[in-house]
Specification:
With 51 residues, the protein is mainly alpha-helical. 37% of the residues lie in helices and 0% in strands. It binds adenosine-5'-triphosphate and magnesium ion (MG). Residues 11-17, 39, 43 line the site of adenosine-5'-triphosphate. Residues 3-50 form the AAA domain.
């Protein structure tokens, strides 16, 4: 198992989008992917269509 973290102090620079797209690309290549959304904004969750 490998854990990847996308981190930057700056807001709105694409951390969540990069996480979503990286996860999608790994999954589309047959890897098992778990995306974990610790951000109270919940953007990753809503980007993926969940409440
Ligand atoms: N590669 C890109 N090219 C153009 N726009 C992008 C790109 N990546 C993200 N964006 C846009 O930039 C905005 C901010 O992206 P995102 O929410 O991923 O940033 P963030 O760093 O997670 O923000 P926050 O600090 O609020 O969590 C969004 O409107 C997103 O669609
Ligand atoms: Mg974000």
């Amino acid at each position: 198992m490998t854990t990847y973290t996308f981190f930057n102090h700056a807001g709105g620079v694409g951390k969540t989008s990069a996480t979503r797209d990286f996860g999608y690309e790994l999954a589309s290549r047959g890897h098992q992917v778990l995306l974990v959304d610790f951000d109270p904004q919940g953007n990753l969750t809503s980007f993926l269509g969940a409440d």
